[in-house]
Amino acid sequence: MQQVSAPLLEVEDLRVRLRTPRGPAEVVNGLSYTVGRGETVAVVGESGSGKSVSVLALLGLLPARVATVTGSARLDGEDLLTMSPERLREVRGPGVGMVFQDPMTSLNPVLTIGRQLVEGIRAHGEVSKAAARERAAGLLAEVGLPDPQRALDRYPHELSGGMRQRVVIAIALANNPSLLIADEATTALDVTVQAQILDLVAGLQSEHGTGVIWITHDLGVVAGIADRVLVMYGGRCVEDGTVDDVLERPAHPYTRGLLGALPDLASADDGELATVPGVPPAPTDLPPGCVFWPRCPVRSDPRCATEQPPLAVVGASGGGLPHRAATWCEEG
Amino acid sequence: MADRRVTGERASRGAPATEERNEAGTRPMGDVLVSARGLEVHFPVRSGGALRRTTGVLRAVDGVDLDIRRGETLGLVGESGCGKSTLGNALLRLVEPTGGTVTFDGTDVTGLDRRAMRALRRRAGMVFQDPFASLDPRRTVRQTVSEPLEVHGLRSGRRERAARVAELLELVGLDPAVADRYPHEFSGGQRQRVGIARALAGEPDFLVCDEAIASLDVSVQAQVLNLLRRLQRRLGLTLLFISHDLSAVRHVSDRIAVMYLGRVVEVGPAAAVGSDPKMPYTQALLSAVPVPHPSLERTRQRIVLRGDVPSPANVPSGCRFRTRCPYAFEPCPDVDPALQPVGAPGQLAACHLHGVVGRPVEREEAVPAPAD
């Protein structure tokens, strides 16, 4: 982990409202965080927590017809949310790589791997076809694909899931992005393949100083790769801090519930798992007070029912990084 | 780690593990509810063109020996494509085995005709992975849950059936008042509860849960896992819990079986297989599971396997794991390893590191290992 004075990405008060058939949905409600160079920030949450939409919003990938995005997101000082579409494309292509969950939907099934890689490389730089192809083969070798020259002429369906996801990562890394966003990138993969991919990303990250936003619901993966963690619930950040603070000393009742609900391979305890009763709120129908109130086992403060507790510092770790949680609960 | 199952309420119910020496039948049959011997499910691989010639064989399940004891939860783990779902289906003859036998409570089910099979299926239920796909969107919860009652002629009157549906919904933690709602009105976790209620309608002895929690959120997964365990104790169910999630399997299972390329390669008490596996594949699989403790994750030694799983249409000769095994040595291509007792009582592993035991490979079968 390295913290450089100016962060690579600075997100401030990001809000996303979607028009849906059931009325307006407040999908992201005031998200603020930074990603430093070479740093990995994990965004954790269950389905519907707004974690995917929040990064799609950063990159201008939400359809303007239905989505209203406010706030700011400065990548190297430039606000992604206010720049022109042309400028955004210039910045996004070489500056940001994205990996989504399902490699089959991110790859074009009728184009060879080579064509898709070469396209990405040539779109953002003056490179000859032959040079781009050479670079493509190099990238495939870098992501650990056996026989990269032959793989270039293959179609996505000819590769296994793990190999496809490696191709998607190669495309995301094609222009040495300063920021890599991975949205449940290893969720569909087997654990042994996931281990290979996580190793790979860690290696590339330390080599190129890439900042990483890793979106996942898997707290095990978070424990292994993240420097900092941001826990999302109902479109809000309910807790953030260093990975040790959040996973070892969780402060928000939701984070505690999530960790308690996890069967633990490292522990021999086979009693009942702690559960969080109920289901997450629908973004079209958020509770008036704390978003977690309807499921909260603590509810120690009467304000929780009517007011959203702000993110407040609950402690700090060695490096002075704050550990914050949006809760008035003193003890769980 | 000590065998945590020696104490506690489960030990009194399950068979004492120390008695078992061999999966292949030295135990009295009375303890075993479901048993597979040399079970095979092979699919023909056909060429594209108009002729559809058979060009090969896909060995989805390829010689599985497995006993599931009455009242236990057996966890079945393995990576995608290893054949674990096909095995679960073959045990209930939802896919037809192409070889070997399946015995259910002493009856060889592989030879039964359709009618006898249907009667037997009442005693076995199945919970599927995707509660969005496994419930008919046009049928109410009542219709879905009472269908098995009608099919098996279990409750005659309408009122009796309604009472049974209410009972089943209560059993899985749903309000009986929701019986006339449709699946789209429920969350994923609630739908999975409906699926479980349907599986329990015929009062089965044996329940196969095939990735039953895979599509649920973490906090909801825990609810369903707890429910399954409570039901099992209360109803004395025998459970086959198929999952790729090793942490969940470790949590719910009495014993764990590990599959690789169509074969069970290790089986034994959950504590032994989960903490001290003897087959290198199980070791690699376990070491790859991330745990939610940052300090532990930083120090853990991860065994990263080389390459991809070979195709089940082209299984390596001898030990099928040898092409990726960090310890492969001379006998591995030539002798197909058998499950042998190793480690904790009741633990079996198919690996030559613990003594070369198995069937020698015939010469024409011996194919060179695919190049890396």
Plain-language structure description:
- Chain B: GO terms for molecular function: ATP binding; ATP hydrolysis activity.
- Chain B: Residues 1-29 are annotated as: Disordered.
- Chain B: Keywords: ATP-binding, Nucleotide-binding, Transport.
- Chain B: Residues 1-24 have a biased composition (Basic and acidic residues).
- Chain B: This is Peptide/nickel transport system ATP-binding protein.
- Chain A: Keywords: ATP-binding, Cell membrane, Membrane, Nucleotide-binding, Transport.
- The complex is a heterodimer of chains A (332) and B (372).
- With 332 residues, chain A is α/β, with parallel strands linked by helices.
- Chain A has one domain (9-108, 175-325): P-loop containing nucleotide triphosphate hydrolases (Rossmann fold), CATH 3.40.50.300.
- Helices cover 31% and strands 23% of the residues of chain A.
- In chain A, strands 6-7-8-3-9-10-12-11 form an 8-stranded mixed β-sheet, with helices on both faces. Chain A has a 4-stranded antiparallel β-sheet with strand order 2-1-4-5, with helices on one face.
- In chain A, helix 4 crosses helix 5 and helix 5 (129-142) crosses helix 7.
- The mean pLDDT of chain A is 88.
- Chain B is α/β, with parallel strands linked by helices and 372 residues long.
- Chain B folds into 2 domains: 32-39 and 59-123 and 204-352, 3-Layer(aba) Sandwich (Rossmann fold); 138-196, no CATH class.
- Chain B contains 11 helices and 14 strands.
- In chain B, the strands form 3 sheets. In chain B, strands 6-7-8-3-9-10-13-12 form an 8-stranded mixed β-sheet, sandwiched between helices. A 4-stranded antiparallel β-sheet of chain B has the order 2-1-4-5. Chain B has a two-stranded antiparallel ribbon with strand order 11-14.
- In chain B, helix 5 (158-171) packs across helix 6 (188-200).
- Chain B is globular and about 70 Å long.
- In chain B, 49% of the residues are buried.
- Classes of the chains: A alpha/beta (332), B alpha/beta (372).
- At the A-B interface, helix 7, helix 8, helix 9, helix 10 and helix 11 of A face helix 7, helix 8, helix 9, helix 10 and helix 11 of B.
